[in-house]
Design goal:
The structure is a homotetramer of 472-residue chains. With 472 residues, chain A is an alpha+beta fold. Chain A folds into 2 domains: 246 residues, Glutamine Phosphoribosylpyrophosphate, subunit 1, domain 1 (4-Layer Sandwich); 164 residues, Rossmann fold (3-Layer(aba) Sandwich). Chain A contains 16 helices and 23 strands. A 7-stranded antiparallel sheet of chain A has the order 3-2-4-1-10-9-11. In chain A, strands 5-6-7-8-12-13 form a 6-stranded antiparallel sheet, with helices on one face. A 4-stranded parallel sheet of chain A has the order 17-20-21-22, with helices on both faces. Chain A is globular. Chains in contact: A-B, A-C, B-D, C-D. At the A-B interface, helix 1, helix 2, helix 7, helix 9 and helix 10 of A face helix 1, helix 2, helix 7, helix 9 and helix 10 of B.
């Protein structure tokens, strides 16, 4: 059944602030620290108490905004969004926050996650005459809110949210209120902080550190936080169910200096590396990590195993979007971008190459080849996560099952495919232990669906024109 | 006397190729791998045997060139240049390679290094009616060549070079020849490789690895290499003197995967860290390095000392040229770009912070403050090079002596200024030993002028309008 | 009552083509010939029978489109739009054609004219949960169509149109049909032509001449034309009422080479000038016209009066959007852009200056001053239209009544205000006669509302948040 | 002999001001009014008494400059230049003013005209070691000045100018002086004015009108004007010879509101049309002019002949540089840019089409075809200048002799080639009479070389690599 379901999954980052005289500037810096969560586009909407005003665009935060644009965004409340680079691009209108005006008031939405019933809801709304502006699943919430008969915006939001299924961290802003909601499984990170008198919300705590805000607590699964001139008010739109925080946030997605559910990401990664070293027993001369996301794990592995850590691979910092890719002919001649092996480090050595995950296997294969061509005697690939066998419907771009090489190949077969001398995956138990969770039962606090196929929510088969819907 | 001498010193990177059907494309990739040597501007000039044609511009290699521009540069010989970001910018005309047309033939020049008598030579040439197009010291060589009475280009170059003083790695290209020259002290790295039938020259060997070229040898001090349809021909325009390779190339400037004089840079840096650990004796909980250039040294330090290496500082990858800097008011509120401390890693810890050098002290002071604000109990700064007390006149941007904080302050005073709990510099002996050289006498093969004040060449006092001259 | 009504009125141009292999390219050229009708923005939507695809942007047609963008717009049906420059700019989303996607099909709209009940309709639709994407009055029709319960698109459109009040020439395109509708008063020009097997629709016939299409007939008031694979089919959504073609189309708005209702615009203007000469009796040495729109009338005036026509004013062709306007101080020093008097032509002369209309009087005052400073002995202003005393609600930017100087000042007062030696307006009878219409009764075929205050449709007082609605 | 001589001839415009607090802004407006003389590029150099500073770029004046750039150009003296669009483009470095720095002072040059011995002088200078920065003939003067042994800049210029042959109006500016020179034949217009205490120099008097400057006099042939803090000082670097003002300046190049040698251009053109009417005797229904340059002549023709003037052709104002040209296939379908016939004006009529000149004949042929396709019964082409049979070496782009259709075809043959019903050229005598000169002897004050082949200066055969030299 799962194989039927196609979709463009994305990860994103959200940031919000309420009660700060430089709301737009703070959001700019906040989004900047969340930039790793999305490089396709960025946007900020502010409110000055009377109207909403926004700017958004394709590219990095510092490409979308300049001083003039930021200065135009005067207001004391703001929400912002960074969007993941998708293969096929994506229209300007899909860049968030989405902003809707009407003669009775405006509404801005920013969303991290992925709704699994967006297509069903949209079809239903269109049959009633609604016109959608975007192909983003986020817009569904706007229509549900606007069609709601309730009077207060809080009630409109509170009764619209239960119609959504999937993973979501939503920021909803009107002229006079900022509302924050997290899905009942708490699948995406979302934290709350204070900056003087202002409240700050962000996908990752690294955004708080940057602007000097003080971490208060994580938003709870099923919680609706309303912030307005009367302060912060919390209530539940859903009773708590089993928390299922996305494991990939720890494994590779979040920034090492962020804490998720109170656990530091770099430290978790280093423990993943240590645990991986414990679970294997390879004789080697050097340990090296695939930059940037696997360096912490590689250092942990080296520390645990006693094998020295070396910089065996260099990531090129200057390969931008406009970089001219080498032709096939040139690639054969040796032109290789992005990652360079350090010949003198690996030449004649037995190398343990630590990476965070294997999705399609093509990258791993390429890196093993690079290291061998640079003279490595043996290359032992050690992966600081279990095999990914199942697609993610909640916002991580692990694509369709057909593309997941571990769905169809055993580690032994995969080892041969990527040309390594050995291939080791971390166990699920090891993963939970290293992160700092107790057990693998359904109550472990982590979503392990991409490894185990046990999804925390129901999944809907996508319909024929699903391709028209882009998830945020 | 030295304090009188002002100038804008710069480091750059050069690349050349002769006898390749995709000369411009190869140069594009070569320059890309030398991008860390200069981000201000880039240029490529090609020859198709009949005429020279070039493109250049401000910015990164992939900003200056696109597919169309590269395809226009048809030819089998090419030279390219990347230029360091200078504070005050620098005119378009100064971007290299410089290209000079005349009714009897054209000439392209690319230069890494700095001439110490450029101003004197220029003044002399102008008094004879020469009109300069740039404020670059590189142009002096073009005028010397053009005024030379010799018939062959090789002789024109050979007899012009001895009039230059300082550090230089020159690529000179005409319609039919590529000439390569290194100053008699060999102060800048310059290596030679083969790619099929083509010859390749580059400032660093990492450029060879990228395009699959095979390293042949380093260009020798005082050597003039002439490459044309008859192959490669080498002769000397100067007898060899004491080699004086710039030590900063090992300490922070070159890429870790390059080999300079046969010594791998990452390995040298790791040895610098180990040697530094040997020379000091600090009790601490974690070792952390200032990314990116000090990571190798920090890992070496950790390995030698047994203190665990941790990622205590994160470098932000997305801070581009157009990034809006926080105002003073925001900085006070905590907005800090570029470098973030990892709170959970340093909180309550005694931290050894390894950095490659201290120039003005402001950066070190800022990082110590960051770490302390993030909760570090103690911060011990360990520098993997000796104190920089003297300005560089050969192309490294260590500015004027007034700005060199070690010129006027002892390590103890400096420790207090930067707010560290201790400050350790590597010794000159330790530096040479770690790099792999024998002794500190004048024959050690390294230039130590910025530490010792012993310059390998004579230095000329700059004249009043020196400010008009930009060094390449 | 009229003074209560505020709004941003605009004139625009529309073009459509059905059944042509280069539909987008033809639309590009068509829009180009309608460029004078709107320079703020331009857009094209095409259909290839299966889906709609569009491109739009701020600026001129040749700024919005390049070869690549046009080539992407493959299809055999297309509609396009050029938009008038409004004072306060206008959001990207308001640029037309508007394009709406849904899971059951797409819809594109292009509109020339102005709806007088847009605000009322929008308010009603929003109260039912509709979310508007733009602040354009055009979007109202899209929502009316989508909410319609009819099955066929033709019926949806046919029964939605009667809810609209005002002036409109609408192009509505789906994947498989192009529909064309003109308001029951026929207030905007809209003509039909053939190009081989294709049908072409345009605001002005000059677009047909450019692409070599053959004029068929004008679209009739209240007519709905449906073009699809079965050919062209016409029906009426309203019975014909009195035609009320906008008189400004003849006076200054349309291109001289266009024919409106079978009357050539240049010839009509020349007749306006002749009629004006008949209605006045001024002794003068030269006749000059304010370029470009008044040249035809000035030549007619000269021909009729026997006073020689001279080029007394030169329009500067290079004053673009980015031109730096002179400061007040510079203006006093004489810096005058856009229009230059030809000193030798007017010096010491009695000059008749023919202009097409006076709205605020500021331009006329400025030109009289220019001519006098250049030495004109007398300046007699002759206007080839009657005084504009009433605002236009149908799309011509004659703004609010407060800004219409003739609403509050007699010609004698106005003559003094602008500093002229005499001021003559054309009579309403003269206007109709010169255009070629019979009488001034309500059946004359022309809208004279801005002169007479007799509006052909009812007018609605604008509501409080009217300012949020931009008319197309 | 002439046929051997190839070259790229160009017309340009120069402007200078000295002693004005807003020198750059005034130059911006001045260049703007000279924009018709060159649209390829523009530049301004200012002096603040201590240093020269400039900005230049490709495109129109208002594209090259914005408020920020102009504000950077602080100074009380300025020179500016606009450059003609050449077929093959032209390098950035050739855009003027050229600016040369040296350690002893800077020099800026702006030039209108064309040197006929530039190639010879350049070759000579290069053989002595000079390196040229541009391919512009203007740079030759800079080298001649710099190589001069004289002490004062005035003497350097005064003794360098006599080495130049051809047509030139030069502005030379140093930190402290502005020098103005006109060739001994006075072939290019150059006038002097006063603006308060400041002196102003411009290619055309329309620039004075724009900024409110008061015309003083024309610069005399062979005159060198030096303006500095001591005021304006005039001397001669050559004795006056026969003045030979370019006739094309009157016929089509200059702006109608300019006066050249005291003669207004529009009035001269109208007289050319009247004279043309006197010299011919065609029965026709309407007279129409090819916009913009032939309108004055057409009106004169109509006035003299009594045949009514009509707007038979419309010039499209929006065809910019980036406009997508119709493909051959589209042209056949009727897509015609730039010029549209007014069908209702010419249909069934005998049309006299007045144009200013015929160079290759292709444009005339195209317009005749347009008019006939629009229904003109007869098209009589009347040209307000004599046949152009000889190339111009002084800066007007009448190209090589091979391209001049009148060099090889009689008017009768040409009439057939362009498909007209008759073709009339103005006589040389008529031309001089209409302009206001006495006779056709060598002392008539006008250059008639392109009609008669009698060149006012010697001409040098171009050498082999002439193609490398672009004239200004």
């Amino acid at each position: 059944m799962l194989a039927e379901i196609k979709g463009l999954n994305e990860e994103c980052g959200v940031f919000g602030i309420w009660g700060h005289s430089n709301a737009a500037q703070m959001t700019y810096y906040g989004l900047h620290s969340l930039q790793h969560r999305g490089q396709e586009g960025a946007g900020i909407v502010v409110t000055d108490g009377e109207r909403l005003k926004g700017t958004k665009g394709h590219g990095l935060v510092n490409e979308v905004f300049d001083g003039e644009k930021l200065n135009d965004l005067t207001g004391t409340g703001a929400i912002g969004h960074v969007r993941y680079t998708t293969a096929g691009g994506g229209g300007f209108e899909n860049i968030q926050p989405l902003l809707f005006h009407s003669q009775t008031g405006s509404l801005a939405l920013a969303h991290n996650g992925n709704l699994v019933n967006a297509s069903q809801l949209r079809r239903q709304l269109e049959s009633q005459g609604s016109i959608f502006q975007t192909t983003s699943d986020t817009e569904v919430l706007a229509h549900l809110i606007r069609k709601s008969g309730f009077t207060s915006m809080k009630d409109k939001v509170k009764y619209a949210l239960p119609m959504l299924k999937g993973a979501y961290a939503f920021l909803v802003m009107t002229e006079t209120e900022l509302m924050v909601a997290l899905d009942p499984n708490g699948m995406r990170p979302l934290s709350l902080a204070r900056l003087g008198d202002a409240y700050v919300i962000a996908s990752e705590t690294c955004a708080f550190d940057l602007i000097g805000a003080e971490y208060l607590r994580d938003v709870e699964p099923g919680e609706l936080v309303v912030i307005n001139q009367e302060g912060l008010h919390s209530e539940r739109f859903a009773t708590p169910t089993n928390q299922a925080m996305c494991s990939m946030e720890y494994i590779y997605f979040s920034r090492p200096d962020s804490d998720i559910n109170g656990i530091n990401v770099h430290s978790a990664r280093k423990r993943l590396g240590k645990q991986l070293a414990k679970e294997t027993n390879i004789e080697a001369d050097v340990v090296t990590g695939v930059p940037d996301s696997s360096i912490s794990a590689a250092i942990g592995f080296a520390e645990e195993s006693g094998i020295p850590y070396e910089m065996g691979l260099i990531k090129n910092r200057y390969v931008g979007r406009t970089f001219i890719q080498p032709t096939q002919e040139m690639r054969e001649q040796g032109v290789k971008m992005k990652l360079s092996p350090v010949r003198k480090v690996v030449e004649g050595k037995r190398v343990i190459m630590v990476d965070d995950s294997i999705v399609r296997g093509t990258t791993s294969k390429r890196i093993v080849k690079l290291l061998k061509e640079a003279g490595a005697k043996e290359v032992h690939v050690c992966i600081s996560s279990p095999p990914i066998k199942h697609p993610c419907f909640y916002g991580i771009d692990t694509s369709t099952q057909e593309e997941l090489i571990s769905a169809f190949h055993s580690p032994e077969e995969l080892c041969e495919i990527i040309g390594a001398d050995s291939l080791t995956f971390l166990s699920e138990e090891g993963l939970l232990k290293a992160i700092g969770r107790e057990s693998t039962d359904s109550n472990c606090g982590q979503c392990l669906a991409c490894f185990s196929g046990k999804y925390p929510t129901e999944i809907y088969p996508a319909e024929n024109d699903q391709s028209k819907t882009v998830k945020s």
